[in-house]
Each structure stands twice: as structure tokens, then as C-alpha cells.
From TrEMBL:
Keyword Acyltransferase found: yes
Name of the protein in question: citrate synthase (unknown stereospecificity)
Pathway: Carbohydrate metabolism; tricarboxylic acid cycle; isocitrate from oxaloacetate: step 1/2
Keywords, ordered alphabetically: Acyltransferase, Transferase
Molecular function via GO: citrate synthase activity
Keyword Transferase: yes
Taxonomic superkingdom: Bacteria
EC numbers: 2.3.3.16
NCBIfam families: PRK09569.1
Entry similarity comment: Belongs to the citrate synthase family.
One GO biological process term: tricarboxylic acid cycle
Length: 437
């Protein structure tokens, strides 16, 4: 058994009595009421999910295992010659709640290398899809195809399912998937946009470094990849991708079924696809200007035109956050400290939108949060390093998001969380509750 799995087993054994005590002795303690607005309005604010992997404060933003983004970057072991940590170290932290040593980190790096080979049948599936399929449809299909190799499903179908130990199979599937998602993403990218030429993995590189290498993009794109995957990993468990993954896994579907579902949710324009939409919107705006430098007035008009046509401003607003997303700030700071990027016209435009859009959205008066989210800032960095195919951006998000979703469903099985099944009511029942019928 790997050291990570051993440490995780220990953490699970320590944690289980806490969950058992709450369920056995305190099940009736109320966490709040549910009102009609919440029942119709996407369950906003209802506390009915439990996760210890991350927590989202509306004002402060995300904390991974209690750590803010800067604290996370500071604490974890760094890749030699880089100021960014190993993604593998972050995986350890999400799973166990502890910061790993360099030795423990390198063990995960090695473990993922052993698991990273893309099966030929996955490549066959990708190649059989129409080449103009959306990269998210390709990515989701690749994940779903790998279900045939699920350790969890094999144990279940052989009649050996055990509630206490099934997390171990989930961990195996999660590790196998985590190791393969970067190479699969790079394969899709190069098949679709780089003349179907491919670059073999470099056995000397970590996960983030290898992703940059297999994409064919030189340094500092390896750092961009590490930063990107870590900050996009998790956003507590009620967001669409995490919740979809958790929901599907709650039926004891394996990690491949579950995360393919999560990816399908991430592909929606109100969720992960917003990072594609931001670039599309920005490029459209630039092309209307025909090369002219945008003015604040021109930008305000474009924002109002979008709102008046009934569209949302992509990259702005949030279901929980009520201030600028710290993931936006992290990426903005990366741009500001990177020579070339800080004066890049597209970054200047994104910064100008940051100055103008919150005022426009406030005046518009609908969005509860007029501030930018993670998606408003990620595309410009990709564009600068040559990834101009913005329909690919959500695949990058999906590689990172797997860290959170897969850590969560491993713990779901460890703690025996039940099959999810909220209750529905009819409109008439709501009218009766409201006293209007
Ligand atoms: C990784 C992520 O998923 S981060 C989010 C990525 N998505 C985007 O950036 C898309 C743009 N933003 C949005 O559509 C929304 O802000 C969401 C989906 C993120 C959150 O939705 P909600 O929690 O329903 O937001 P909120 O309660 O503020 O919505 C109230 C109203 O303001 C509108 N609104 C919210 N954000 C925006 C926006 N950026 N532009 C225009 N209108 C907006 C909503 O559409 C809603 O209008 P309605 O009453 O006509 O239905
Ligand atoms: O938290 C949410 O609802 C959306 C989001 O920012 C994410 O999933 O990263």
C-alpha cells in the first residue's frame, strides 16, 4: 500500500466516529429552514451537503483544507526551480488534510507516472468522434470509456462490495484517473488543434510539468498549469460539477461514471464554460473595434448591449461569493508580475472590464454579486501562452476540478454517505404553503 493510502486509511479511521456520533445522536438538530425561493431557485444556501475538503466563505473565498490560496502555495513542497508546488502534493493535502513532506510528494509523483499511460481504446474513442466535437464532449467521453477499467465496479460486480473498505477501490480509480487526465487533455488539444501531432510524456517531469510538455508549450507554462490546476480544484461541494459527481457516486456508480457527469455539468456556460464565453465575448468586442484601443465608454456600451439583449456578462457574478474571487486575484497577480503579460493588450482589456463591469452590473441591479469570478481572468493567460482555442479552456478546468471532485467521492465512500434523494413537492403544495390556494 502506498504511503498516501496508508495515511488516508488512518485519517479515515480517526474521522469515522465523528460522523457516526453526529448521525446517531444528533440527526434531529436543525441546520435551518427551507423556503419557497430556495425550492424554486436552485437550492441556494440550503445546508445539506457535508465536505471537509474545502469551504467557501462568501467574502473571503475558498480555503482548501483550511488554507487560503496564498497559504496553500506557501505551504506545499515546490517543484525544483519553480515557485509553484507539485499538484501531487496538493492532492495529498486535499485527501488527508496534511501538508506532505518532499519525500511523500515524490512518492505520489512516482505513483502517478506508473498510472499515466492512456489506454489505446481511449485514443480510439477520441479519434472515432467527429473532429469538430466540443473538447468537453471528447473529454467526458474519454473518462466514461475508462469505466471498463474501474476497480470499484469490478469489486462490486464480483459480489465483494464492503461498505467499510470500498473507499480503497474509489481511491484506486481516482488515482488512475488523476494520472491520466493531463495526458488525455493534451492529446485532445494536439489532435484537434496541432495537426494531430503528439508529444510523449517525459518521465522526469511532475504532473504539471508534463502537461505543459505534452501540450508543447515551453516554460513558464508548466507553472501556469500547476497554478491553474490547484486553484480550479475545488469550491466546496454544492457547485454543479462537484455536486453532480457526488450525486452520481452516491448511487455507488464508480468514479468514471461520476466524474464524466461532473464534466458534463462543468461544460455549462453558467459554470465552467464561462471561461470560454469570456474570451468569446472579449474577442467579439475587440473585433467590433477593428483594431482601435477600447475606451471606457465603448466598453460600457458593449456591457449594456449584452445585458439588454438578455445575456449575462460572462465571468461576473457568483452563487455564493460576494466579493472578487481570490482565484481571479491570484491569476491577476500572476499577470501583473509576468513581464510581457502585464502590458499585453488583452490583459489590459480584461483589467478595464474589471474596473467598469461591477459598476454596470450594480446599476443594472440584478446580480447579487457584481464582482468577477475565476473565469474572468483565466483565458487571457492561456491566450498569451498560445492556447487561443478558447473552446479548450474548460478541459483545463476539468483536469483541475478532478482533484476536488475525486477527493470528495473517496471520502464520501469512506464515511458511508447515503444515496442522495431530496424530496420534491408540487406547485400546488407551494401555493398551499403560501396560503394562496
Ligand atoms: C466556476 C464558476 O462556475 S463561476 C461562475 C461562472 N459563470 C459565469 O460567470 C456566468 C455569469 N454569471 C451568472 O450567470 C451568475 O452570476 C451565476 C450563474 C454565476 C450565479 O447565478 P445566481 O446565483 O442565480 O446569481 P444571482 O442570484 O446574482 O442572480 C440574480 C439575477 O442576476 C442575474 N445575473 C447574475 N450574474 C449576472 C451576470 N454576470 N450578468 C448579468 N446578469 C447576471 C441572474 O441571471 C439573475 O437574473 P434573473 O433574476 O433574471 O434570473
Ligand atoms: O462555486 C460555484 O458555484 C461555482 C464555482 O465558482 C466553482 O465551482 O468553481
Amino acid at each position: 500500500m502506498s504511503t498516501l493510502k496508508q495515511v488516508l486509511a488512518q485519517k479515515i479511521a480517526e474521522h469515522r466516529p465523528r460522523t457516526t456520533k453526529l448521525v446517531k445522536e444528533f440527526s434531529d438538530v436543525s441546520l435551518g429552514e427551507v423556503n419557497i425561493g430556495q425550492a424554486i431557485g436552485g437550492a441556494r444556501g440550503i445546508k445539506c451537503l457535508v465536505t471537509d475538503i474545502s469551504y467557501l466563505d462568501p467574502m473571503e473565498g475558498i480555503r482548501f483544507r483550511g488554507k487560503t490560496i496564498p497559504e496553500t502555495f506557501e505551504a506545499l513542497p515546490k517543484v525544483p526551480g519553480s515557485e509553484y508546488p507539485y499538484v501531487e502534493a496538493f492532492w495529498w493535502m486535499l485527501l488527508t488534510g496534511d501538508v506532505p513532506t518532499m519525500e511523500q510528494t515524490l512518492e505520489v509523483v512516482e505513483d502517478w507516472k506508473q498510472r499515466a499511460q492512456i489506454p489505446q481504446y481511449v485514443i480510439d474513442v477520441l479519434r472515432a468522434l467527429p473532429r469538430d466535437s466540443h473538447p468537453m464532449a471528447m473529454f467526458s467521453s474519454a473518462i466514461l470509456a475508462m469505466q471498463r477499467d474501474s476497480v470499484f465496479a469490478k469489486t462490486y460486480s464480483s459480489g465483494k462490495f464492503n461498505k467499510m473498505t470500498c473507499w480503497e477501490d474509489m481511491y484506486e480509480d481516482a488515482s488512475n484517473m488523476m494520472a491520466k487526465l493531463g495526458p488525455i487533455g493534451a492529446y485532445i488539444y494536439r489532435m484537434k488543434y496541432m495537426g494531430d501531432t503528439h508529444i510523449a510524456a517525459d518521465p522526469d517531469l511532475d504532473m504539471g510539468g508534463n502537461f505543459a510538455h505534452m501540450m508543447g508549450i515551453p516554460a513558464p507554462y508548466d507553472n501556469v498549469a500547476r497554478m491553474y490546476f490547484i486553484i480550479h480544484s475545488d469550491h466546496e461541494s454544492g457547485n454543479v460539477s462537484a455536486h453532480a459527481t457526488h450525486l452520481v457516486a452516491s448511487a455507488l456508480s464508480d468514479a468514471y461514471y461520476a466524474y464524466s457527469a461532473g464534466i458534463n455539468g462543468l461544460a455549462g456556460p453558467l459554470h465552467g464554460l464561462a471561461n470560454e464565453e469570456v474570451l468569446r465575448w472579449t474577442q467579439n468586442f475587440m473585433s467590433h473595434l477593428g483594431g482601435e484601443v477600447p475606451t471606457e465608454e465603448g466598453l460600457k456600451k458593449a456591457l449594456w448591449d449584452t445585458l439588454n439583449s438578455g445575456q449575462v456578462i460572462p465571468g461576473y457574478g457568483h452563487a455564493v461569493l460576494r466579493k472578487t474571487d481570490p482565484r481571479y486575484t491570484t491569476q491577476r497577480e500572476f499577470c501583473l508580475k509576468t513581464e510581457g503579460l502585464k502590458d499585453y493588450p488583452l490583459f489590459k482589456l480584461v483589467s478595464m472590464i474589471f474596473e467598469v463591469a461591477p459598476g454596470v452590473l450594480t446599476e443594472h441591479g440584478k446580480a447579487k454579486n457584481p464582482w468577477p469570478n475565476v473565469d474572468a481572468q483565466s483565458g487571457v493567460i492561456q491566450w498569451y501562452y498560445g492556447v487561443t482555442q478558447y473552446e479548450f479552456y474548460t478541459v483545463l478546468f476539468g483536469i483541475g476540478r478532478a482533484l476536488g471532485c475525486l477527493a470528495n467521492i473517496t471520502w464520501d465512500r469512506a464515511l458511508g454517505y447515503g444515496i442522495e434523494r431530496p424530496k420534491s413537492v408540487t406547485t400546488e403544495m407551494l401555493e398551499k404553503a403560501a396560503g394562496i390556494k
